Amino acid sequence: MSFDSLGLNADILRAVAEQGYREPTPIQRQAIPVVLAGRDLLASAQTGTGKTAGFTLPLLQRLSEKPAARGRRPVRALILTPTRELAAQVGENVREYSQYLNMRSLVVFGGVSINPQMMKLRGGVDVLVATPGRLLDLAHQNAVDLSQVEILVLDEADRMLDMGFIHDIRRVLAKLPAKRQNLLFSATFSDEIKTLAEKLLTNPEQVEVARRNTASEQVSQQVHFVDKKRKRELLSLMIGRDNWQQVLVFTRTKHGANHLAEQLNKDGITAAAIHGNKSQGARTRALADFKSGSIRVLVATDIAARGLDIEELPHVVNYELPNVAEDYVHRIGRTGRAAATGAALSLVCVDEHKLLRDIERLLKREIPRIALEGFEPDPSIKAEPIQNGRQQQSRGQGQGRGQGRGQSGSGARPQGGSGQRPQGGSGARPQGEARRQGGNGQAAPAANSGRRRPAVKKSGNV
Questions:
Q1: Number of folded domains that form the chain
Q2: I need a labelling partner for 437 at 20 to 30 A (CA). Which of 80, 86, 297, 371 fits?
Q3: Does residue 324 lie within any of the structural domains?
Q4: Residue 370: pLDDT above 60?
Q5: What's the rounded Cα separation, in Å, for the pair 230 and 261?
Q6: Residue 343 domain-assigned?
């Protein structure tokens, strides 16, 4: 099947072809006709399946079929994303695919000055890509009118719920017209997402491309048991020995990410950290340097588990296992995207054995073990409770308004709000770096990125 057979117009097809895409992915084949028909949609797809084009292409077509009235352009399509990085990448897709259409788009998120965003909105925008917190800030200042939105997209809706955005989503929905088309995209169909869909969507078409909570079959997975204090030594050795040139490494905390990046640089391996305490500029530069090959290792917290699109990323390393088993799937989903293959390595110390069992229970299989001579774990070392990064921090301490609304970028879960059972040895519910610190930031049809909680009324209130 080609894109021509999906009913898209010539201007959109030309833009898609210029991006180098010829055949739609499964999620695109199923979602695009549904959106073009004006139906509400509940779609689940694994990351890297081309999800973004699955809604941006038909959205642009629908808007172009009925041009806006003359005068100031109202916001006709609103795309909500949980993080800055995902917002930026979705916005880039919209610009690429609409380059031959008479269409204006804008991306707004926190962490940067609000004034330029207000000025651009004043000039009129057809498609607005936004994170919930910054959108509400703009609405509070009467800088954006959402009363004429025709199409609403909730991208990575389950992650937005995980990050505590449900109240912000309610406020946004209250500002939208009751009659509109709703598209809800999620990595998984959790019970919370199904509850949300039942209240938000009207007679939706349901599309599910990947099995629930499955890791990409294109990713080879391995576990290496190693003492916690020797993880960095082992990682440096493997990167050097096997000449890994592009490695995305996940840590559990922001401090851990900074420390590991510093240590790798001392080992002669160029590395940078990306997490919620980094400025937007620093995060953008680090990602650009990683993509260009200027640095070999990008050390990230779970901000990067969703929304980062890096073509043909060969290696993902779990330097520390995530507290929530499902996050493992999203982490390793950064590699093995589209038609590419990749490798995921987890360095597991004695503290993390329970987390590994939870992950393998989710995957319904054991992850193959490897062992490097000289790095065998010391059997005399006993397991200790896992520090999650917030235990010494009072709730909300040091957070500004934008951070509290998910603008800063950690991708952390709200304390006690994930709906998951405790995964670590601490006995606490999963905790991220800071409560609801989002980030903000997908790519083109064949390689886009693609993550739960209560309710929304059809009238526009969650």
A1: 1
A2: 297
A3: no
A4: yes
A5: 15
A6: no
> Would 86 be classed as within a structural domain?
yes
Q: Cβ of 419: how many Cβ atoms within 10 Å?
A: 16
Which residue in the block uniquely carries the two structure tokens 């064949």? 446
299 pLDDT more than 50: yes
pLDDT tens track for 136-190: 999 999 999 999 999 999 998 888 887 788 889 989 999 999 999 999 998 777 7
135: CB partners within 8 A, 6+ apart: 78, 80, 108, 128, 144, 172
Angle, helices 115-122/132-140, rounded to nearest 10 degrees: 70
Angle at alpha carbon of residue 132, lines to 417 and 31, rounded to 5°: 90
166-174 and 132-140 helices cross at what angle (nearest 10)?
40
Nearby residues of 153 by Cβ (< 8 Å), 6 or more positions away:
55, 59, 77, 78, 79, 80, 183, 184, 185
- Residue 101's domain is classified under what CATH number? 3.40.50.300
Please give the radius of gyration of the chain, using alpha carbons only, rounded to the nearest integer.
21
Domain with 118 in it: 3-213
Distance of CA 234 to the CA centre of its chain: 29
**Residues 226 and 234 sit within 8 Å (Cβ to Cβ):** yes
The reply to whether the predicted model has a pTM over 0.85 is no
pLDDT digits 0-9 by tens, 221-248: 999 999 999 999 999 999 999 999 999 9
Q: Does some domain include residue 70?
A: yes
